[in-house]
Write a structure and sequence with these properties.
Elements lengths: L4 H12 L2 H20 L4 H43 L15 H20 L18 H9 L8
Length: about 160
C-alpha cells in the first residue's frame, strides 16, 4: 500500500497535538539546557538547538497548512450540504469560497443591511432575516445540487 502525504500528515498532526508531544519537546529543551555547562555553552551547543528548531518549524509549516486545507474543505462541504438542504436557501452561496473578493464583499454588505433592517423593524436580535426573491432556491438549482451528489430537500 503506497503511502500518501495526507495520511502521513493526519497521523503526525494527531501525534504532535497531544500533551505527550509537548512534554517531549519540553524534555528536549531541558536536556539541551542542562548540557550547556557540559559543553561550555559553546557555539556548537547553541547550533544544535537552533538547527533542530529551524528544521522542526519548517516541516510543521507544511503539516499545519495541510491540516488547515483539509479542515477548510470539510467545513465548506458541510456548509454546501446545508445550503442545498434548506428550502429557500440561496444556492448562489454554495461554493462561496470560489467567489471573488468583490462578490464576497457584496454579499457581506447585503447581510449587514439585512441585520440592520431586521433590528430597525422590531427584531433586535436579527434572528429572522427577510428573504430576497433574487437567488432563492429554485427546483432546478436544487436538482443541480442533487445531481452533484448533495442531498437536497425537495422544493
Amino acid at each position: 500500500m503506497p503511502w500518501r502525504f495526507s495520511d502521513i500528515a493526519k497521523s503526525f498532526s494527531r501525534a504532535v497535538g497531544t500533551p505527550t508531544a509537548l512534554v517531549l519537546a519540553c524534555v528536549v529543551v531541558i536536556a539541551w539546557a542542562i548540557a550547556g555547562p557540559i559543553f561550555a555553552f559553546s557555539d556548537t551547543w547553541q547550533l544544535v538547538i537552533n538547527t533542530g528548531t529551524t528544521i522542526v518549524t519548517f516541516l510543521m509549516v507544511f503539516l499545519i497548512q495541510n491540516t488547515q486545507n483539509r479542515d477548510s474543505r470539510a467545513i465548506h462541504l458541510k456548509l454546501d450540504e446545508l445550503i442545498c438542504a434548506v428550502d429557500h436557501a440561496r444556492l448562489e452561496l454554495v461554493d462561496a469560497e470560489e467567489l471573488s473578493d468583490e462578490e464576497l464583499d457584496r454579499h457581506q454588505r447585503e447581510f449587514k443591511r439585512k441585520r440592520r433592517d431586521a433590528a430597525t423593524n422590531g427584531n433586535p436580535t436579527g434572528t429572522r432575516l427577510e428573504r430576497t426573491s433574487a437567488g432563492t432556491g429554485s427546483g432546478a438549482a436544487r436538482a443541480e445540487c442533487s445531481k452533484n451528489g448533495v442531498n437536497a430537500a425537495a422544493p
